[in-house]
């Protein structure tokens, strides 16, 4: 089986310096497996691989498109169940919704149904990162913006807070709940 050290250099230069689409598609399942397991340099390879996939994956055959969608779903579930990750949750959201142009709502619904502390800690991280994110005009970003101030993120955070595995985790969840409380208050700008 090809290792991350063997495929890492290829992953960063696939189809630009080395190989063609056929070769890329040949190595892609293993590259994605290594990415999900965080055996490749996370952010660099996530950006690089997903950019290469996004170029023309909608032109691939139906089985290949379904495989990409399934792998992204598995990656999302794996990420929600493990914290911290090399690739932050906002980067994953951008890969899903912006790069691959997949509908974001099912991924958010899956997050809502995930009761792990890891999923809640990703939410806590997003609460703080989202305030720093640059606003988009994209439809997916508006969906995320509306969702993050809604009741689901608070429920995720509250549930995990009451069963936090450490005082540090409880503090992160508490801080995120406070951020959510502030964001979700109606603002009267006419005063």
Please provide a written account of the structure.
- With 191 residues, the chain is an all-alpha fold.
- It folds into 2 domains: 1-60, no CATH class; 69-185.
- It is 69% helix and 0% strand.
- The relative contact order is 0.09.
Summarize the structure.
The chain is mainly alpha-helical and 191 residues long. The protein has 10 helices and no strands.
Helices and strands, with pairings:
Layout (H helix, E strand, L loop, with lengths): L3 H10 L7 H16 L5 H15 L5 H19 L8 H11 L5 H8 L4 H14 L8 H10 L2 H11 L5 H18 L7
Helix pairs in contact: 1-3, 7-9, 7-10, 9-10
Keywords:
mainly alpha, 10 helices
* Shape, per Cα inertia axes: globular
Cα separation of the termini: 65 Å
**Overall mean pLDDT score?**
90
In terms of DSSP E residues, the strand content is under 5%
Q: What level of helicity do the residues show? A: 55-70%
**Largest sheet features:** none
Low-pLDDT residue spans? none
User: Can you write the helix and strand succession as a string?
Assistant: HHHHHHHHHH
Number of helices: 10
The gyration radius over C-alpha positions equals 18 Å
**Class computed from helices, strands and strand pairing:** mainly alpha
Strand tally: 0
Number of structurally distinct domains: 2
């Amino acid at each position: 089986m090809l290792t991350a050290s063997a495929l890492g250099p290829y992953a960063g230069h696939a189809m630009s310096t080395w190989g063609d689409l056929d070769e890329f598609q040949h190595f892609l399942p293993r590259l994605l497996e290594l990415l999900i397991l965080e055996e490749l340099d996370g952010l660099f390879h996530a950006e690089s691989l997903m950019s290469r996939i996004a170029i023309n994956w909608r032109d691939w055959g139906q089985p290949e498109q379904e495989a990409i969608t399934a792998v992204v779903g598995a990656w999302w579930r794996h990420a929600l169940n493990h914290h911290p990750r090399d690739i932050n949750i906002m980067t994953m959201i951008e890969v899903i919704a912006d790069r691959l142009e997949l509908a974001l709502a099912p991924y958010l619904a899956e997050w809502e149904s995930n009761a792990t502390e890891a999923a809640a800690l990703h939410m806590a991280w997003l609460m703080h990162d989202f305030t720093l994110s640059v606003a988009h005009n994209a439809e997916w970003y508006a969906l995320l913006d509306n969702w993050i101030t809604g009741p689901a993120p608070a429920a995720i955070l509250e549930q995990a807070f009451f069963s936090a595995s450490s005082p540090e985790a409880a503090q992160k969840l508490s801080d995120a709940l406070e951020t959510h409380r502030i964001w979700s208050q109606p603002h009267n700008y006419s005063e």
